[in-house]
Amino acid sequence: MSEMALQGAKARTRSRVGLTVRRNIGWGVSVLALCGALSILGAIFSFVLARGLPALRPKVFTTVTSGIAGGLENAILGTLMLVAFGVLMVAVIGFGTGIWLSSYASPKPREFVRLLTDVLAGVPSIVVGYFGYILLVKIAGWQFSLAGGAIALTIIMLPYVVRGTDLALESVPRELREGGFALGATYTTVLLTISWPYALPSVLTMLLLATGIALGETAPLIYTAGWSNYMPTWQLTHAPVPYLTYVIWTFISQPFAQSHALAYAAAAILMLMIVVTNVLARSWLESLARKQHGAR
Amino acid sequence: MAASTIAGGAAKPRRPGVSPQDLVLRYGTTSCAVVTAATVFLVAAFLIVYSYPALRFNGLSILTGMTWNIGNQYGTGVERHGGFVAAPGASFGAVVFIFGTIASSALAMLIATPLAVLAAVAMHYRVPNRLKTLVNVLVELMAGVPSVVYGLWGIGVLVPWISNDLGPFLAARFPNSPLGGGAGSGNGLLATSLILAIMIFPIMAATMRDVISRFPKQTFEGAVGLGATTWQSVTSLVLPALKVPMFASAMLALGRALGETMAVLMVCGNALNLLPQNIFAPVNTIAAAIVSQLDSALTDPTGMAERTLAELALILFAITLSVNLVARLIMRGSDRVKRTA
Fold first, then answer.
1. Which residues from chain B sit within 8 angstroms of residue A109, using beta carbons?
2. What is the pTM of this model?
3. Which residues of A109-128 are buried (b: 16+ CB within 10 A; e: fewer)?
4. Each residue of B4-25: pLDDT tens digit?
5. A130 and A162 co-located in one domain
6. Number of A:B CB contacts under 8 A?
7. Could you give the number of structural domains in chain A?
8. Helix (H, G, I), strand (E, B) or coil at A241
9. Do A29 and A124 share a structural domain?
10. Do A45 and A64 reside in the same domain of the chain?
């Protein structure tokens, strides 16, 4: 009897020990997976910066590319122009669609457009690029151009901005809007003076994150923006535009140290831009949102 | 009643005076929504219309043919199928691209999914509160690193490592297996899958963390209160309960992997007319082929090569669309179940 009890106790202890071991291994492996992934992020950053920063001479910013050498002035400017143009367009269409979804749409069309936005988010960037090539470069006859590249980037950014605007306006507290209605404000007034200012910080956060995505895109631009060794102009069509990601992709496969240096320099500039937009999006605007929500 | 109609997002109180501002806002935003919705259909429509000659010319052979050959650009005569012509000897078989797309994504999912589940669990339950924001920002930054930069890192670090270290190491230990064929240049299926795994990991980890964070805290604490270890609660309570939305998160990441272009293009080895014999062998994917084959396609005076690339884009669109739709439907379904429960 007592022996049996003893055996039972032993078994329990053993299983207890087993549990502890399994728990520790489980949590250990989980934390390790997370740390491993973050260390890959660290490795990529240190790799790009270690090779890119030494290549960042002032000349890189003041000369244009010539063949596979020279500087990156044209590519930096081209990237900024393409993205600025795209952000401008996506701000109009994306904000508009988001406002319509959250404030005007009736349930069925709303579900449908939300589904289509999700679908658009899943379209591979190269498919968007080829679509731009067919429609803008071939059929519309714009050739490689600023407008073509910017429109392709707009399509890439659109689902993020639409979803961000939609969610931000949906999360405006109902009491706040009812307060406006109670004071006799019209639907439009409540939307413009209460809901929109309230949602703006999170809307802008999403727009900045989308900007970061657009900065790093390559595939949609290969077929629409083309590439050029010259400084980009504001000519909308019939003039190819250089951009940074093209330099990274093509110059790294050239057999010259000089072109490799340019590729790494372009990658370093790009990573810094993306970190800045991400950090801006997170810290500045989130603190703004917190202040606003706190003041409520 | 009146208040609830007003507060409901879609309801619009009827008012006698409609100002121009109301109209501008209403119809302006409606037309924006029409543009957004139309974009999806335009993408599909233009791909179908532009690739129609290719669809007719290639028939089913694009799904069964091994050989990608845009034909003899200097020969005489033409190749004629389905009422459309291509250069003599042209044959557009995409089996290599389709196989490469599926194999590299499947391998990437195999590597990334378990790690992402574990990392998501760690992010929710083990990262101290003061580090949570930092870790979240880092994971999202990892998702925000451009594809082309992953490709650059692949060329600079991963591919040489596979060629110089991993390949010889595996070849010495498993000489007669798919692992032991020798790594060659390092560009190939394994490099592609590893890069894809690294790229989809943060996307999966972030969405899975969101899924886990919605699990009711009381239920978890109840399990711990009954004597389960935290790890037991996670593995036998939280994860089984969340398997449907977790699966949907994985499907969304799979959609990304299937359509990933630049990083894959830079490390896949750009195989043509050849299926990989071991995990190091060069492969090609649909997305990478659309980029790498355009230059030669443009030299085809019949235009059939270019139109077949549009057909490839259409196939990729169809594949990613179905994967994404399945994921969304599952997600929605599980949301609805939760709401009614």
1. 33
2. 0.90
3. bbeebbbbbbbbbbbbbbbb
4. 444 444 555 555 567 888 889 9
5. yes
6. 275
7. 2
8. coil
9. no
10. no
